[in-house]
UniProtKB/TrEMBL annotation:
Heterotetramer of 2 NUBP1 and 2 NUBP2 chains. Interacts with KIFC1. Interacts with NUBP1. Keywords: 4Fe-4S, ATP-binding, Cytoplasm, Iron, Iron-sulfur, Metal-binding, Nucleotide-binding. Component of the cytosolic iron-sulfur (Fe/S) protein assembly (CIA) machinery. Required for maturation of extramitochondrial Fe-S proteins. The NUBP1-NUBP2 heterotetramer forms a Fe-S scaffold complex, mediating the de novo assembly of an Fe-S cluster and its transfer to target apoproteins. Negatively regulates cilium formation and structure. The lineage of its organism: Eukaryota, Metazoa, Chordata, Craniata, Vertebrata. It is found in: Cytoplasm, Cytoskeleton, Cilium axoneme; Cytoplasm, Cytoskeleton, Microtubule organizing center, Centrosome, Centriole. CDD domains: Mrp_NBP35. Gene3D superfamilies: P-loop containing nucleotide triphosphate hydrolases. This is Cytosolic Fe-S cluster assembly factor NUBP2.
Length: 226
């Protein structure tokens, strides 16, 4: 079973992407019960999005309050037996990142971080600082993914490099990190995410699915060998 912990407190978008909307979070003897996205209960999710009365409500919190909630998410959610816990964080190197890392290390083995960039130099510059953060905190880098790597035309499937190309791969070479692959800017993927639909089941023959699948398989192999 896979768990997803959404700690992007100011922009919790994972519930919408997975099509679970505004679910109520219940409690059991072991803590908060995560929201399951499928009948088989193979994918569990916890997000602050489930705790807000109004989805348009702004989360205006200072660092200590953010840190306290993240600590609760890590220690008080009844995940059950997980194979993998994936933590989605906001961009940058802020309170959320430190709080997640410190709390996870108290109770679990942390395999590492997956860094996502877009091809432009402005984005890769931000990710360089995230690499420095990982090195300073002793967090392994599992690899770098280049997102929005070219635009896939929905009519002819031709890929055009709107935001340039190769920035993620070049960054991986410069920093000695593993390059996991590139995901194009695909309107079909964007629509699926917006509507909370399963892109992989809907478009299994697309080049975008192939790119995502290669990244996932590479990561799984890395985790199994760690």
């Amino acid at each position: 079973m896979v768990g997803i912990l959404d700690v992007d407190l100011c922009g919790p978008s994972i519930p919408r992407m997975l099509g679970v909307g505004r679910q109520e979070v219940h409690q059991c003897d072991s803590g908060w019960v995560p929201v399951y996205t499928d009948a088989q209960k193979s994918l569990a999710l916890m997000s602050i999005g489930f705790l807000l009365e109004d989805p348009d409500e702004a989360v205006v919190w200072r660092g200590p309050k953010k840190t306290a909630l993240i600590g609760q998410f890590v220690s008080d959610v009844a995940w059950g037996e997980l194979d993998v816990l994936l933590v989605d964080t906001p961009p940058g190197t802020s309170d959320e990142h430190l709080a997640v890392l410190e709390n996870l290390k108290k109770q679990h083995k942390v395999d590492g971080a997956i860094l996502v960039t877009t091809p432009q130099a402005v984005s890769t510059g931000d990710v360089r600082r995230e690499i420095t953060f990982c090195k300073k905190t002793g967090l392994s880098i599992l690899g770098i993914v280049e997102n929005m790597s070219g635009f896939v035309c929905p009519h002819c499937s031709e890929c055009s490099n709107i935001f340039s190309k190769g920035g993620g791969e070049e960054l991986a070479k410069l920093t000695g990190s593993i390059y996991l692959g590139a995901v194009p800017l695909d309107p079909l993927l964007c629509t699926s995410i917006e509507e909370g639909k399963d892109f992989i089941q809907t478009f299994p023959d697309s080049a975008t699915f192939s790119a995502i699948n290669i990244i996932a398989q590479t990561l799984l192999t890395c985790l199994q060998n760690s």
